[in-house]
Amino acid sequence: MPAISFNGLIAGVLFAAFWSGSFIAIKFALPLAPPLWLAAGRLVAASLVLLAVFARPAMRIIRDASPRMRWRMLAAAVLTQSYYLGATFHALVTLPAALVSILGSSLPLISIPMATAMLGEKASPREVVATLVGIAGIVVAILGKPGADGLTDALLSPSILVMLSGVLALAFGNTLLKSIVSKSDVVPLVATQMAGGGFVLLLFAISVEGPPHFDWKFTASFGFAYLVFMGSIAATWMWIVTLHRFSAIGASGFFLLIPVFGIVFGRLFLDEVVTPLQLLGTAVLCAMILVRSLSISKRETR
């Protein structure tokens, strides 16, 4: 029976906590700048901090990589940093942080078909059923959103569709990133991912939102600082360590902790209303991810 990586376990839990905290910090930081500029500024600032210390090993990673690996690195950066973060910031303009964290926790469910198609991993019937029931849990959680008027209004909300597309991009990017983390040092790799993703998102912010307008109030500045140092550097570092210690599907299981932290943080810091229907949907989602994870664990220990 393979031993569970204790360091990987701690890294996964810390990642979930830091990442959930980012949803709250974004809410505080949104008055600072338009959402795409805020997301781009977060990545650019974090990459500059890391490159100030790790520029040489980061350049070595890029120099030593094959052309195909460089394209993988760029694609992973665009998907996991540029698109996913841009979608998250956009969604948080109109959606509660707790609901966005619930949507983000659907990553493990999406990872099953993604890993099957791209990594050749097989899903058992139990995993397939758990995936379908888990998706139903997401639908229930969305329907529990305060102010939602029926199924169509809830599911076809533009912000929800954008957020779900971001989760799809993150799942795809993680499968690309998995093949890179075993060949590169963690921190320099984080720096290259943020620099590449930040540059692409910066261009997109300029084209969509025009020139930036920053309002450096204390609360917004504090939220931005959290996003740079904890939500970007620390969380991405912990995520890459987790990917290094676990399989792509196994690592994605830590996303089940995100709605738990998200609901608690949203209630504590933003006084968000959490409806019983949202709690029910989250419970179903977490239960199905747990069932799926146990199924994978049993298969790998045979």
TrEMBL record:
<dbReference type="InterPro" id="IPR037185">
    <property type="entry name" value="EmrE-like"/>
</dbReference>
<keyword id="KW-0812">Transmembrane</keyword>
<feature type="domain" description="EamA">
    <location>
        <begin position="8"/>
        <end position="142"/>
    </location>
</feature>
<dbReference type="Pfam" id="PF00892">
    <property type="entry name" value="EamA"/>
</dbReference>
<dbReference type="GO" id="GO:0016020">
    <property type="term" value="C:membrane"/>
</dbReference>
<protein>
    <recommendedName>
        <fullName>EamA domain-containing protein</fullName>
    </recommendedName>
</protein>
<keyword id="KW-0472">Membrane</keyword>
<comment type="similarity">
    <text>Belongs to the EamA transporter family.</text>
</comment>
<dbReference type="InterPro" id="IPR050638">
    <property type="entry name" value="AA-Vitamin_Transporters"/>
</dbReference>
<keyword id="KW-1133">Transmembrane helix</keyword>
<feature type="domain" description="EamA">
    <location>
        <begin position="159"/>
        <end position="290"/>
    </location>
</feature>
<dbReference type="InterPro" id="IPR000620">
    <property type="entry name" value="EamA_dom"/>
</dbReference>
